[in-house]
Amino acid sequence: MKYLILLTLMQFFWASSYTAMKLAMTEMPMGLVMILRYGIAGIILLVTSCIVTGRRSWRISTQDFMIMLLVGVLNFTLSPFLQLMSLKLTYATDTSVLVAFEPMITALLAVFILKERFSKRTLLSFIVATIGVLIMSDIKPGQDNVGLTSRLMGNFLFLASVFCEALYSITSRYTTQRTSPLRVIALMTIAGAVTNTIIYSSTLTAENFSRIGSIGWGSILFLAICCSVLGYGAWTFLAKITPVNRLTLSLFLQPLFGSIVAYFTLNEIPTKHTFIGACIVISSLLFWVVTHLNKLMQGHIQERRRARGA
Hints:
By secondary structure, this protein is an all-alpha fold. It has one domain (18-201, 211-309). Helices cover 80% and strands 0% of the residues. It contains 13 helices and no strands. The longest helix has 38 residues, at 272-309. The protein starts with a helix and ends with a helix.
């Protein structure tokens, strides 16, 4: 029960992060948002991991270390860049719905990385969900509208960021089997923070900092502490003890939380097409996840029966 409460709280934080990023970008450049968010989070996580885990957890194989660095850059540099770019073009409500793609994208990556079997049900659900994205973006055949085209582009940019998030979920379960979860998330975040600082160093000016008000700093602290430190820290810990397929079920809470937060903070009112498209996306992906989990459970039951028979 305590893990369910933790998962729910995490999803609320992450669902609110898209609104927080939009608010932060009203007072500072995109690059500065990334530097401050992951810089603050990285320092907190690194100090905490050194205090809690001690020296013994520093023993990391070269292969695992390189994986952590690579995934850290993908998840904390490339992914937030794609998210922030998408938020300039689309709505926070849309992005909170699109994050529900992660369970399926995780399964698709598992086909290539873990050589798992690809099913027709996965392909069909992905196609139906993609149609839902087009409807949600309010795109119609033969329509020529720059605003709507930008919204669609923003939605697909966000989907690209979800690939990075899914890769993080897979590698977290792999690396945390041999290394402290706290150490894993700390090293990944630091890798992203250092990369962000190098790429966006030009945004570190006194003029940019002088423009940041209470909303900007509040958004950055919320993103760094609640979304990155607490959110990713808890996710990495749970990834060690929970199958990723089951863990990602909690992502379906984000559309609900994200829509509510966007409505009250950004005054984003979902249109008819947004609502219909979101329902298609969520229902098709939820159907896939439930049937996928049922298939896994049946496989486990059969294995137990065989073990007993032997």
